[in-house]
């Protein structure tokens, strides 16, 4: 009799401890060697709704798709909340790509609260028409062109890419007499949308400085687009969801956040889902400990009889 008790109780306790946690973040995934985690996701319904339909994994290459085009994602920095993007038609220190081939950077308006190019990312617009909106509405010699985080066109002109372009220093310095500058550096905030067609520019370069590193010349700059993302507030919903063993996602309306608790979805967190679902790690630990205590009590009682 007592032996049967032992066996049955041990079996119950072990099965409770060993039950796989079927909600052990089913949304986390990988693309190549990049981890895709909240607020991003590759599956619909996973992650934060502000980043839905954004990332795609194609042959182990992570791609980001927004209204201005597709970019390769080189890195996701979750601690600093930044993404590093690459556009094959971006001009660098070695090559200048003209012919309005580049994507630039423009977002769907609803995404703007969630992600934007970093303030220390410089966009250098190349070969813009004198009729460009860039040069309109700025009285006197007040152009929007300026240094961004110590990166400027002045320095960029020193790159080998400019050598074969017949770049004319005098035209640049006297641009109000002889046309606009060949390159105009701006931070994203002043233009809000780098659309080469709309700005009537031939090409662009983009570079960022990884603070606090100060690099010497334009040959040392990191070329690419550095984007900061934000969750608008401290995202208490997902914090509470994950703290109770859930995985964060969003509902069919693509607005409402959803906490996925195993087989059940909750509109708050997994503590509000009935104990009976039995998939929560905390609930399992509690029942395992309770089981063990009951077992010990019974064992002592039986042995005393
Ligand atoms: C990922 O792989 C690429 C080459 O395949 C490498 O350049 C990069 O440093 C790797 N990134 C990480 C975070 O390991
Ligand atoms: C829970 O929500 C996710 C994401 O929207 C969805 O894919 C899944 O089907 C939902 N599950 C249930 C049981 O409603
Ligand atoms: C860029 O500007 C052109 C011309 O104004 C417009 O037709 C196009 O839709 C814009 N592209 C994006 C991605 O906003
Ligand atoms: C931009 O920075 C360079 C070097 O840091 C400096 O020589 C130049 O005067 C600055 N230009 C403007 C417009 O601030």
UniProtKB/TrEMBL annotation:
PANTHER family attached to this UniProt entry: WALL-ASSOCIATED RECEPTOR KINASE CARBOXY-TERMINAL PROTEIN-RELATED (PTHR33355), WALL-ASSOCIATED RECEPTOR KINASE GALACTURONAN-BINDING PROTEIN (PTHR33355:SF3)
InterPro entries for the chain: WAK_GUB
Main location: membrane
A single cellular component GO annotation: membrane
Alphabetized UniProt keyword annotations: Signal
Topology in the lipid bilayer: Single-pass membrane protein
Ranges for domain Wall-associated receptor kinase galacturonan-binding: 27-87
Compartment(s): Membrane
Source species, domain of life: Eukaryota
Listed Pfam families: GUB_WAK_bind (PF13947)
Signal peptide start-end: 1-24
Name of the protein: Wall-associated receptor kinase galacturonan-binding domain-containing protein
One MF annotation (Gene Ontology) recorded for this entry: polysaccharide binding
